[in-house]
Amino acid sequence: MSRFLLLGRAHAAALLLLLCSAAAQAQAITPVDTGLPVVRVTTAGAAPITSKDTYLSGTLKIIDGTRVVYGAGLYDGATQIRGRGNSTWLMPKKPFRLRLPVAAPILDMPADRDWVLLANYTDKSLVRTDVAFELSRRLGLTWTPRMRHVELFVNDEYLGSYLLGEHVKVATDRVNITPIGTSDNLAPELTGGYFIEVDQLANLEPGDFYVVTASGILFNLKEPSGSRITDQQKAYITTYLQDLERTLMRDDFADPAIGYAAYLDVDTFINWYLVNELVKNVDAPFVSSVYLYKDRGQKLRMGPAWDFDLAAGNVDFSRARDPRGWRIRDQALWFNRLFQDPAFAKKVRQRWNSIKRSQIDTLPAYIDQLAATLSTSHQENFRRWSMTQYDWPNAVVAGSYTGELRYLKNWLAQRIAWMDRRINDME
Prior knowledge:
This protein is α+β, with helices and mostly antiparallel strands.
């Protein structure tokens, strides 16, 4: 996330003061059994986790829930842990990265070494990320990160209700594209796979290779990484992205043979668009945490979906708070241009109408299921962290968990109704 870059200096300074204030520091508590799995991380010497860059060694023990029972993936062994996130790392309740010494299954998720613990501190409903990922699965994105609600303890301190799940990376059970090596410098091997994140310069690491298109979109190559990408691969993916954007801007951009459809997989763009537009994801207009991938011999595809704590009306510095109005369609250049093609708009309308009743209108019922799962967890979480305090950038502070869920469901109902009217008015 790069929300600071979207703010004025005064707003950003006020946020930093808020995050550092004594009022934001909660007191440690001993929670009751919430029925969820318990994750216990102990660092060597009980060292505090203070860095996003340096892993600390420690142990990880996962205890199955008494009510939400998985019966598998109860890891008990060595781990490394560090911080993660950008603006979220500045919050009192912090997110983390876990790395295991060897790939292992966690709960009912496929084996891997790399995992995340998402804090969802600014989302007082605790479910926006879960709901968005459920929508992503319902719309059929190729891979959606699996997440499980857990209770987290670090060095015996209760940190609250977290999502434990899959780190976004190239792997067979995650972003499943053909690995590209340093010897893959001629077609067809040269054509993939590439894994890309739209991001901002301030978020990049030393040595990252990135492409900035004529319109100013920054595409950061996650795979192959900057240390392993060859000059031929740099030239290929740079040319591909630049040519795609130039094609989008041409008068014949909609020609099915030589236009944008020759470069991008339209169906994946539509599915990703509907997920992010429906929840009005504040970062989705090609700001940050926007992922794309290009497999060998294939077109550019969008996904996976990611980063939804400031979605669905949970933001006060942007018009994304309003359930009315387009977000991605108006503010993301590529999608703005795609919607100028009547054939693309028609496909969006057809896709929306094919899934609205079964997959979108039923989201409030899914939220109710999550609320039941978190019926005790949310109580313990908000004994540890404030329910009634404003935390940047909350659009509302309902003052109760019931009120937060009511606001979320009402916002989604208004959003769905507005989008349904507008999508079906498209000509």
